[in-house]
Amino acid sequence: MGAFTDTVPGAFICKLLGDYLQCNKEQSQEETSIAINDIVCILPSSMERQETTYSVLYLERHGGSSDANTVDDRVRLVRISTGSLPSTLLSQYLYKELPRHLSSLSRIHVVISTGSGAGKAKSLYQDVLQPFLSYLGLTTCEVHETQSSQTITELAHSKFIPCAQTGIDQTIILLSGDGGLVDIVDAFYNSSESMIVPPCIGLMPTGTGNAMANSIGLHCPIMGLMTLLRGKPRRIPVFAASFSPRSQYITEEGRGRAPICSDQTVETEDHKVYGAVVASWGIHAALVADSDTLAYRKFGVDRFKLAAKELLCPSDGSPTHSYHAIITLAKKSKGADNQQMEAMDQNEHMYVLATLVSRLEKGFVISPDTSPLDGCLRFVHFGPTPPDVAMQLMSKAYQGGLHVHEKAVTYKEIEGFRIDFREEDERWRRVCIDGKIIAVERGGWMEVRREPRCLLNLIADFP
């Protein structure tokens, strides 16, 4: 990293007092107190003067909260200059060189998903990420704001994939929810071109659930910034979901339909959708689909609980639906390379889900045995149960994943699974692939398998 030019007149004198860095200027009597948990990094300043000086980058909160895990609209990145710092802070926060994915060797893209979650992505970029990149000397980043639900997919085809094909290093910083990552995953894995260099993706979570970010420990903006500095590229595990030929995406809050593949008339065409988070059917897929309306989305993450209540206890007094299908699990055979196929002994279901992550929300631990990016596909299932029992089972996921210890729940590692649907009404043939809803035709099927290829890396910081 080149020399950091300090433009702040007059350096602070800083002392470590408990969990705070107390800073003051003797001449002006200006003072500031920085919570240690809010420090993002320490950078060496210009060496033009006789003494070494440092710049401390930290998050300033105007909401009155000192909790580093709290995200509000009034957080911004601030810099102060100081002549000396405690060695304990320097050893933990000082960065003299940038990692390769933030260096001049990489083409850096910033994608701002304006419609993610509560719409905070743009302010997070302006108040936090943009000054952060500027202080690091990264002033030539390409910044893209989404204009529609197709923007990130279009960027993948027009910019990201061509760079990967020609061997250009690139870092894509996503200010989005899981949807931004999913769009890139699906575009890359559906491309017929070969990739030479996998892009590095950095997450600044701004969505509702942020399953991938929460599963690798990114719970707030400061963690996203620190991971960009500390993290290393890790392979993103992916699954491939194949569908019977006439399956379609459900769009426009349930009113529209769109083909999975460009040519729906080709019966033999392999209709695949790729994901990195979750593939589900039953009540999980139904509540994701039903909650994807303006009426529900205004409730944020609580919309899932509200939709679940209506599905479990319909307001018209009808009984909770039992989902009918034949489900076959693919498992590794001991001492062999081939797989063992095993049909479940029940054809009525309520909750059917396979996931590559541990959390679907910050507090919702769907798969407690999953380690970050370990590549294991884990299956969670329970059959028809009374509404109160189903709610109890799902609520245990908010208790650190205790649901997997319940007798009614099947929880195991698999290589894949297949669902042959036995439902007449399309409402009960909707599946969820990383938040996208697909309607399978009557008598149709879905098959999910782990994907062996590695086309994308995620910047992550864990042992």
TrEMBL record:
Domain DAGKc: 103-247
GO molecular function terms listed in the Swiss-Prot or TrEMBL record: lipid kinase activity
Cross-referenced InterPro entries: ATP-NAD_kinase_N, Diacylglycerol_kinase_cat_dom, Lipid_Phosphate_FormReg, NAD/diacylglycerol_kinase_sf
Cellular component GO terms held in the UniProt record: cytoplasm; membrane
GO terms, biological process: sphingosine biosynthetic process
Protein name per the record: DAGKc domain-containing protein
